[in-house]
Amino acid sequence: MLTRAVALAMTLFLPQAQSERPKEAEYVTAKADADRVHGRFDEAIATYRQALAIDPDYLPARRGLGQVFDLMGRYADARAEYLAGLEGRRQSYEAAPLLWSLAASYVFDRHFDDAHTALQGWADLVVERRGYDPNDSLAFFDLAMAGDAFDEAERMLDQHYGPIAKPPAIVPSTTPDSHAVMTQLLWMRYNAEHAVVSARRGRAADARRFMAEAEAQAKQIGEVLANFASATGSTVSLNPGRELVLPEGEVAFWLGDTGGAIRLLADEEVMFPRHNLLLDRTRLGASDRAGEARSDRPVAGSEVMVLTRRPGAAPNRSGLSECEVPFGERSPRS
């Protein structure tokens, strides 16, 4: 009789308890995420483990725990968490965020071939889900840049932008051609990205030439938009000049212009993860040369990773982007 009672209770209440587990794990994971964002890594680890004790299959907790380990430089531990989450799920779309983070961890640890394999696994899943997006090639561009594979980086840029040539100048008008504006914007971005690659390769003249072209396009687009806003009283959110601040800062950094890099990269409103690192490195170099105390700005120790940069994602205290979706939203650029 007791056995029947226990069986009845399990039948009635176990499904409800199981259905509540993900909700409880989600709540606990949210607390752990907050600890991670604010650099409370020991607390975050304990809380993520608490979430996994509630629901071992709750992947955001598994991924969050791995991200904390990456931030602490415990890359093997991080990958152990990602791989545990991937077990039996590699062909499922829910594996995509874990593959993204696995690729990031391999980059942190300078294992670029393994990073490429993980990133390709991510790309296969997202393409299967929503089709090919030219922005996907930018993730591989970032990976190539992290590994100093500059020829591959330029190939990914060309793949992303496709056949592209300098567009004709736009005539200022109260009704500018939106297609013409976007064509110029793409040309501006293409040149800005190539300026960064050239600067990383030590090709100063090419870097300056590409950046000068990007700046000229930004100025022209800005004038067209300002004319439109003045004539119509409309508010224009697009700011091409501001969009160039970060690549300009990168170029300055890699060409040795410490003062220019600090001036350009120190604006928190446009700060993304790799620029956080570059700014810190620039400040440390300036302080060392001046014999001053080092900057107290926090650094993500091995954050060489371009893979975590995503427009729209605010950097946290540790310099890593807080996006919960993988590489796919690194940049949809319009």
Question: How would you describe the overall organization of this protein?
Answer:
- This protein has helices at 2-37, 41-54, 59-71, 75-86, 96-108, 112-130, 136-146, 150-161, 178-200, 204-232, 240-243, 245-254, 258-265, 273-290.
- With 334 residues, the protein is mainly alpha-helical.
- It is globular and about 60 Å long.
- Residues 292-334 have low confidence and may be disordered.
How would you summarize what this structure contains?
The chain has 334 residues and is mainly alpha-helical. The protein is built from 14 helices and no strands. 66% of the residues lie in helices and 0% in strands.
Topology:
Elements: H1 2-37, H2 41-54, H3 59-71, H4 75-86, H5 96-108, H6 112-130, H7 136-146, H8 150-161, H9 178-200, H10 204-232, H11 240-243, H12 245-254, H13 258-265, H14 273-290
Rg, nearest Å: 23 Å
Helical proportion, percent range:
55-70%
How many individual β-strands? 0
Please report the number of helical segments. 14
Decide which structural class fits the backbone: mainly alpha
Shape call: globular
Biggest beta sheet summary: none
Termini separation comes to 67 Å
Instruction: Give the low-confidence spans.
Output: 292-334
Strand coverage percent: under 5%
Q: What is the average of the pLDDT values? A: 78
Order of helices and strands: HHHHHHHHHHHHHH
